[in-house]
Every structure is written in structure tokens, then in C-alpha cells.
Amino acid sequence: MKLRETFGRVCHDTRIGLDLTQLDLGEAVGVSRGHIAKVEAGRANISLDLLERIADALGTRVDLVASPPTFLSEREPRDVVHARCSGMIGRRLAGAGWQIAREVDISDGRVHGWADILAFDPRTGTLVIIEIKTRLQDLGAVERQVDWYERHGHRAAARLGWSPRRSETWLIVLDSAEVSAAIQAHADLIDQAFPARADHMLAVIRGTERPMGRGIAMVDPASHRTDWLLRTRLDGRRSRSAYGNYADAARALEPKRRGRA
Questions:
Q1: Do 181 and 136 touch, CB atoms closer than 8 A?
Q2: How far apart (Å, rounded) are the C-alpha atoms in residues 168 and 130?
Q3: Model-level pTM?
Q4: How far apart are CA 197 and CA 174, in angstroms?
Q5: What CA–CA distance (Å, rounded) separates 79 from 134?
């Protein structure tokens, strides 16, 4: 209900309770009886000044509470590691024939979240919503983000002119020992929450498998290998991570500045 409709109802009910006519109230606040009638019907574009005068005349307290929208994730300039991961993932998907959109607002009008990448394969009608993490510090928060994207991602895809028939949500994390340790520490939860793995995700990209749910894989943004989505330790991987931690990756991926001649 709009503010003016809510206030109009309160004004009407309070006036009746005080046994006042619309003329009485109008004279008390300096407006016509007809204007009071419009206020009570919720049809008047009432100013805050008049609202306060009416509330004072009726002995009513009015509190104006403004609730800002809720943001699941902050939209801000990303660091070099995240940017390199996003750029590499987008290029690989585009090279495989997928349509790409980055930093997509996924909202219901009040709650907002920005998906790192939305990818759509027009050949199969598959939508993939991708969340990229360079660290894995709060898995619960990641799950809440992913759940929101799954519920509202198709609406965001429609705004892009896409018509997905099926979808899958992927958590793609930096290939670091730091992230691997976090995955192992939450192995049971990740097994349940993200059952799809790198091999399946690569097959979805190639169009040889259908989406089966949420997936998790690792990525080294500096890698040029064909199978660019990497397995985690949960999939029996034994090879070393590309980076020790986030700081190692930042140093390795920071653009090199040319020295002066």
C-alpha cells in the first residue's frame, strides 16, 4: 500500500474516533473539506508539511521509515586476480560459442545481487550462472548467493534477450592451496551443495552433457590448457595448485610494468 493511502486511512479512522467532521479538520489545518476528503481517499499528493499539520491536529504520531534495498554482494571494482579469472572464463566460454554477460544485476526489485558471469548457449538453450571466488572464506554466504541466483537468474537472462530451457550454477574458484584447504575443510558440505565437477562442466560447455545441478571447479587464469576447468581435491586430484594463496596469485598475475628506456 502506498504511503498516501496508508496515511489517508489513518486520518479517516482517527478523525471519526475523535468525532470530527472533514470541515472541522480542514479548518484546523488550513485546507478545504474537499482536500481532506481527497487525503482520506488516498488521492491527494500530500506534502510533508500538510501531513505533519494533520497528524498534529489529530494527535497522531507519524514516523517515516525508509528501507534501502538489500544487496547480496557489493558491486565494486574487482582486484586483479578476480579480473583475470573473469576475463579468462569469459574468453573460453565465448570461444566455445557461448554468449556472455558480466556483472549482471539479479534482483526481485528489492534484493540485489550481481552475478559475475551469465553464459548462454543458444544451441542447447543452456544458461550457466557463474560465481567466481579467489578465496573461500564464508561458504554459507556463497550458498545464499547461489540460491538467489538460481531463483531469479532466468528473469535476468530474459532481460538479455535469452530464452533458457535449462540452467546450472557454477562456483569457480582460484586454483590455490589456500582455497583447496578450505574445500577440504568443508568437504561434506561441498559434496552435497555442489555435486557437479569439472569434467561434467567442461562437457556442458561442449554441449555433450545436460546440466545436473550446482558445480564447483578450479581455474588458473594464466593457464592455456584445453581442459581449463580443473578438478578439486574432492575429485581425487593429486597435482599441486598453481598458487599457494591469494597473495601469490596477485604477485604472479599483476601486469608487469615496463621500465624506462
A1: no
A2: 9
A3: 0.70
A4: 15
A5: 10
Distance between CA 89 and CA 182 in Å, rounded?
22
Residue 232 CA to residue 234 CA, distance in Å, equals: 5
pLDDT, tens only, 123-178? 999 999 999 999 998 888 888 888 888 988 999 999 999 999 999 999 999 999 99
Largest CA distance in the chain: 89
CB 129 within 8 A of CB 164: no
Cβ contact 194:234 at 8 Å: no
Give the span between the Cα atoms of 230 and 217, in whole angstroms: 6
- CA dist 261 and 32 (Å) reads 81
The total number of residues shown for the chain amounts to 261
- Domains present along the chain, CATH in parentheses: 2-58 (1.10.260.40), 70-253 (3.40.1350)
Cell readout for 39 is 487525503
How do beta strands 111-121 and 126-133 pair?
A: antiparallel
